[in-house]
Structures are given as structure tokens and as C-alpha cells.
Predict the 3D structure of the following.
Amino acid sequence: MSYILVVDDEESLRYTFAEFLIEEGFSVKTASTVEEAISVLKKALPDVVVADIRLPDGSGIELLDKVKKESHIIPVILITGYPEVKTASEAVRRGAYDYLVKPVRQETLTHVVRLSKRQKELAEEKERYRANLEALFLSIEDGIVIVDSDMRILQINQGVEKICGFFKDEVSGKKHDTLKRDCGGRCSELLARSISERMVCMETALRCFHVGRANQVVNIKSFPLFWGGGFKGGVMLIRDVTFYSKDTRVEDQWRFHKLIGKTEVMNKLYRTIESVSDVDSTVLITGETG
């Protein structure tokens, strides 16, 4: 149920504030004490709380604390007939939406209540959006890595734990390109390029060469991350395609790596050769034996 809770121990003021709001189309409930207000809150949370600072069994700031424990997005407007800078600053510090001084005009009260109610609606919408994104983020089997502009890991999902062997508590805040890894590290190169050049990078059928998972093959796609009107970092998607990759390609890669070795230098050489595989050219590898 959508309603405004008005809390004041003076019956005349309680009635007056309620009438102000009802005339503007709001549904209103009232209480005269902190205890009574809490009893109303437990039955159904209000959209906005309007409370006097001084109440018989406590203060409006105490009520503010209790409301914020129930829901941090409910706006609380405190009203006082004895304005003090210390009290006002304390109210704002604890999360009060506004601090009004008596006498309160009808247009002032209704305007502030309308604005605070709209803020709550936006906060609820943002919370729903965040919850939906989080559910989506956690449910996707593909690995998702989010980093800031310095390549520091902000978030990973369970897919990354499964595919890469990294755990959120162990890698959060660390730079992706400095992680101790048992693979070729090509994913970090792509992510770094997306960040530095602000471009989408992609590589398919990439063999990871994980210790213990030598045959793992993944598709990787990385994007620059823009949010709030500015550049924030990068996002990388990792899809395990080990069981869907063409056997011939995987086997060819495996034979080639067995031929030239698995060192990082040789892996880079192989990737260079693979990058020109679609070009009609011949690659000659020379060097000392051993």
C-alpha cells in the first residue's frame, strides 16, 4: 500500500499536515509516538515519513535510524520548531531527506514530499535494475570479467571460476594482466587492447593451455566499458567451446604445439603465424636447435 506516514505528538499539527497531503492526492497514516510509528511501519512500509524531531518516547532522529534499518530507500523528512545547526547536520548525516523548520507552509510540505517520493521511486527502479543485472550476471555460464581502466578486476562471475580457475575473493582488485596463471594469457592481451584502443576485440577457438586442462578451447570477446557518460574500463566474455570446436582445428593446433613446444615465446610465435593463416603466404621458422 502506498502512503505517507506523518508522526507528531501534537494532534492539531498531525491533522493539519495530513490534510495538506490528502488535498494533494496522497494517502496518509498518522502516529503520535516512535513506538506507534514503528507499529505502523511493520504492517506496511510507507513511501515517505514526515516526523517531528521531538516526540514523547524518543526523537525523530531515533525514528530515522529505525526506518533506515527497515529500508534504506525510504525518505525521512524531519520537522522542528527549535532549529539547531548541530541537530540539522546530525539528521543529514544519518540520512534524512530534508529538515524543515516550523511553521511549515502547505506548498513547502507537499513539494518536498512529492520530490522525496519521486526519489524513492527512482531508487526502487535502480534497485530492481541492479537485482536483474546481478541475477543475469550470476546465471550466465560464460565467463564475464569486468575491469577498470587500469585493468584492476572489479567483478567476475562463476563462469570465470569454472573456465579460468580464478576465484572472486582471490582476484578482486588485482590487475588482470599480473595474475598468476597457468595459461597463455592471450585473454589479457585482448582486454588490454580493448581498453587502450577503445575497440571491440575478438578471438575464436583459442587454446588456453591450462595446466591440467590442455585441451580447453575458448572464444573471447572484449569491449571497452562506457558508463555514466565516460570511459570506465573493459568487459571480457569467455565462452568454453571445447566440445563444440572443430576437431581438425584443435588437433592441428595440438600437433603444432607439440612440434614447437609450449613456452610463452613459442606460443606468441604460433599466434603470430595463426594471425596470417588466411593470407596466401609462406612462413619460415629459423633458429638454433636445442
Notes: The first helix runs from residue 11 to 23. The CA atoms of residues 198 and 229 lie 14 Å apart. The radius of gyration is 30 Å.
